[in-house]
Amino acid sequence: MSTEIRTFSIPDAAAEEAQAQLSSFLRTVEVQRIETAYADGAWRVLVLFTDLRRKEESQQIEAAIAAALNGWRDKAAAQAGVTRDAVLADDLVQEIARFAPTTEHELSIIVNARGQAISPHGGEIVQVVRSTLDLLID
Predict the structure, then answer these.
(1) Residue-wise pLDDT tens digits, 8-38
(2) Cα separation of 12 and 87, whole Å?
(3) Which pTM value belongs to this model?
(4) How distant, in Å, are the alpha carbons of 33, 65, 101 from that of 125?
(5) What average pLDDT score do residues 51-77 get?
(6) Which of 89, 77, 81 is nearest to 116 (CA)?
(7) What is the pLDDT of residues 102-124, one digit of tens each?
């Protein structure tokens, strides 16, 4: 989730309309920070924010990937006669869902960053992520 930046100008001459636009915008985003400065007869407002629609979309995508990984993990664990955590740790499911790696190289970076070794199921994990993304994009 990346922070975005937008600037507004609230001139003394038309302050009410400009403030209404700013207020309307602020209701649609999650504000990270606001900076203000006054120059040349107008307030300059810098808003650092996260777009809530994008945040909601990201959360839906993460949830879908996590659900798909958990379904795959249950099957793989049953076939191998081990616990699902032995196939893929719970915390890794969340990290993989968050970053949605589509190559084994990307997956290895995520897994190694957690101080763990890449699973022998790396190819299958990436395939689950890819097919979930394909379903969501269509």
Answers:
(1) 999 999 899 999 999 988 888 888 899 999 9
(2) 63
(3) 0.62
(4) 37, 10, 9
(5) 89
(6) 89
(7) 998 899 888 887 777 777 889 99
How is residue 86 written in tokens? 């032995």
Rounded Cα distance, 112 and 107, in Å: 8
Locate 100 and state its tokens. 């949605």
Q: Which residues does 96 contact at the CB level (< 8 Å), separation at least 6?
A: 65, 69, 88, 107, 110, 125, 129
By C-alpha distance, which of 96, 108, 105, 106 is closest to 132? Answer: 96
**26, 8 in Cβ contact below 8 A?**
no
- CA–CA distance, 63 with 21 (Å, rounded to integer): 34
Residue 41, classed as helix, strand or coil, is coil
**Amino acid present at 89:** A
Helices (H), the chain: 15-26, 52-80, 84-87, 90-99, 104-113, 122-137
Contact in structure between 8 and 21 (CB atoms under 8 Å): yes
Token digits of residue 91: 């915390």
